[in-house]
Amino acid sequence: MSAASAAAPRPQRRQRLLRALDRRFAFHRRGNVIAAGLAVALLGGLLSLLLGQDANWDLRNYHLYNGYAALHGRLGVDLAPAQLQSYFNPLLDVLHYALMSGLPAPLAGFAMGALHALAFLLLAGIAWQVLDPRLDRARLAPWLALAGMCSAAFLSEFAGTMADNSSALPVLGALLAALHAQRRQQAAGQGVAVAWWALAGALLGLALACKLTNALFALALGVAALAAGGRARQRIGGAAVLSVVTVLGFAVLAGPWLLGVWKAFGNPLFPQFNSHFLAPLAQPVALSDTRWLPQGWLQWLSWPLHFSLAPNRVGEVGLRQIVWPLLYLVGLASLLRFALRRPRRPAAASDVVAPAWRALLVFFVVAYLAWQAVFSIQRYLVVPELLAPLLLWVGLRWLLPARIAAPAARWTLIGCALDADRLRAGRRARPGRLGPRALGARGVPGTGAAIAAAGAQPGAAGRRRAAVVAHPVPAGAGGVCVRGVQFPRIAGLCRARAGAAGRARPGLCAAAGDGGPQRRALAAAQCAGRAAGPGPWAGLPADAGPGASAGARGAGRAGWPLPVDDAAGTGHRHRRRRPRGAGLGRPATGRLRPGLAAGDVRGLRILGRAGALPVPVVPGEPALTAARGQGST
User: Low complexity bias located where (predicted)?
Assistant: First the structure.
């Protein structure tokens, strides 16, 4: 009696809770959709505050700097202070910089969480389009959307400045608009849903402008547009409208930036794809990171199983999850069953999904295969991973017997959500200001400062810090900031050029390494002098421009033969040596001397004509100088 009576209220309370959620948030009417979206946005903002302050590697390296540089016209002043990422389209970085510099940290973090939570409505809309109307879509769509948002890659970047989650929103919106356009075309029987295809193209162009890796999804959606949507003429027309508007949207949003980079360097994607553009300031090679790609035919055929067992194989931050091996096995079983039962069951899953399922499946498969062949980096897989629970649910519902299909699919998705690794990549648990106000770099003038930075990754524990040096440049001069491995030069040739440039122009900055174990190429060169003519570095001799950078391998000690009158150390136990023949108004000799050691810097204040230029280096923290255009370390 007592045990039965005690256990009875619990199911009743659970049923009452489910009925209340169904009454307020199930998609029975438009008001419930709005209420569910607002509730998830509120939860997303609160989750962002719970996760802590964003401090990921990319934020320290270039997100803040790119936003600042775009707003303050640093393209012709700085040379790769944030490595090759300095020349990415700063569309999203401007948003991040504006939020972090204009709002208090909690409010900025809440806004980013609410923004990323918009994926809920987009995923629910896609599920609504795909599921068969005979199913209880009003209840299934929001739950499947929540299951998608519990993916490992999405949660690891939730409310952060890494562009994968933010750029996934327009991709999902484009997919939803394309599915709706195909449904309208099939219902009408003729004509092309031009407005909906144009909306899909505009969103896809926005996604491409925000992050070029979304080109994979543009390709996948173009193929999916041909897979469904009425007659062949309608499909081709829809794909044509999608392609044209995508190109136009990308040209409008990214064209001005790419044109500016092209004018400055001779390569709109500088320094990438330089084997085609042959820009003089970078090597004529095509940059690519192939270390993440599968090796051998066995890995190519079983890659989802492989990277699920070894998550560090597809990213520096390993994220554990089981949705990919389950989806891989369900896909193989579905292909086998379809091949064996095709004569008896021509309609594969008509009792579970609508005709839009074909387009979604084509989009997913093409996007995944393109990702595996080109990148194989997990954070570029955010969009397919958001859709994976929906495909897994459909596959299980079709494969399993009817009496166990629904509960098995439900509990499988719950297990995937609970198992997803919620690693808080690049987060700080302690509260604090976000962005430039936290960096202590205020009052830095827009011109007159050129910084050479060299060394290890920003904020990498156990690695040597990079010394940061600023050099005053006369107004109107082509000052540059140099950092990174994307401008390697032969050491001997670079030293010769640096010496010649130093004798020709005063104030040359050069860097040298000692061949440390990291064997990273150091590059630093800056010529002070007035530009005579168009272009940021016009009027300088051939050996005195940014191409005459002095580089050497190693991540050890680095020295800059700067005039001692131009730099004063604070909080540092080393005194800077005055190179012979170097001083204010006197040319540097070009001789490289060991000076500040990377890792010994605790604080450095640069004194120039514009006044004190603080370059903060906090013990235990990276030198976040990128927010004010002073390079990134």
Answer: 585-595
